[in-house]
């Protein structure tokens, strides 16, 4: 494409977007301040505490995250080492903190991150031993961290069951029993060590799954014909097919556009009179059954003003012209969109 | 659709906005020399129109406020050898490491990979963010398709 050919297109870019700095990667802990700044413990304490091999399995279970042992310490210094994966959830943590664990009564493993924003005692976590039933009050932000920090972990079903009892505070608890969550069997069961990778880890897992399933529901409403589908895999396949078909349609229509009007001498004034933009009552040929109920019905509300070259427009003029931009037209397509 | 604690914002402008942008881009295309020259191959024109469609869609749908549109515009600008840098408004960092460390459900991972290849800019996103973007992308795509369909219908001789 010639340089000037897209000048017009891209020229708007400069107008629209300021040339700022587009940083592709950020330092890992650039966002850490809201959370880290509140910590006020002595890192040394934690480091010492966690370097002990109370949770050796944790390190082993986490081959992907080499820095995992670091945030066992939960120290302020530990946070910068943490994978940045924790940080994005800070947003929802702040906003949605209410539904996370306010307090975790059943003491889980001590291998938790503690954000001592509330003056939480570090010593609780430092003392390890994995003994459960120790009261530990977790600030909400901490649960955020814990979730994200230990993403690697696969939960074990046992701790999950405990989860369901514990986290009644969570809003998502109710939703967690929905069927479109991945069945637990998909996960590799961790060694069921009591008090070990904990509530917090499974919490992390569960939060993430909840988010994903919520968005799946959103997508399910978007993609036509997916109301009956349950299950992530099929749903995702449907979504992918739908996106592909839409993209193919764009390509196909652009091909058609290029042939229909080779000179592209579209008079914008006429077009902006909205005549052209009104749909016509015409079915695009389809090769499949249309399961999409919402594409039915037309709005034959086209006025009869036509330019001579656009005499193809606007056959009907039955209803009054609808000036609102609520256009729907008789548009049928199938997922397998064959070009003819 | 917005839940109380995490509203997923996927509003899309009306069809007019898309139509306007697309027509503007097309008219820009028209003023180029290369477009109306007779020795232009059809495939080139098609590609240009397609690119125009995507770019106008990206711009109409929210410019640089959405990840996919931002990456689309960036790609398009790069193709023109223009170093356009977008100012990131809401600073959401792409934690690539996070994505790599997104273990877990093999079912969803495979499909998520495919989705990432489809949706522009999906490479650096986490799965939940990816799905948000996909939802918005689907809405915009369908809007764009409607616009183009109407245009084609309007322009085709009868």
UniProtKB/TrEMBL annotation, chain A:
Organism field: Brassica campestris
Domain BHLH: residue ranges: 196-246
UniProt keywords, alphabetically: DNA-binding, Nucleus, Transcription, Transcription regulation
MF (Gene Ontology): DNA binding; protein dimerization activity
Residue ranges of coiled coil: none
Pfam families (alphabetical): HLH
Subcellular location: Nucleus
Keyword Transcription regulation applies: yes
Name of the protein in its database record: BHLH domain-containing protein
GO CC terms: nucleus
From TrEMBL, chain B:
Chief localization: nucleus
Identification of the protein by name: IBH1-like N-terminal domain-containing protein
Keywords: Nucleus, Transcription, Transcription regulation
GO BP term (any one): regulation of DNA-templated transcription
GO CC, one annotated term: nucleus
Superkingdom as given in the UniProt entry: Eukaryota
UniProt keyword Transcription regulation present: yes
Compartmental location: Nucleus
Residue span, IBH1-like N-terminal domain: 18-79
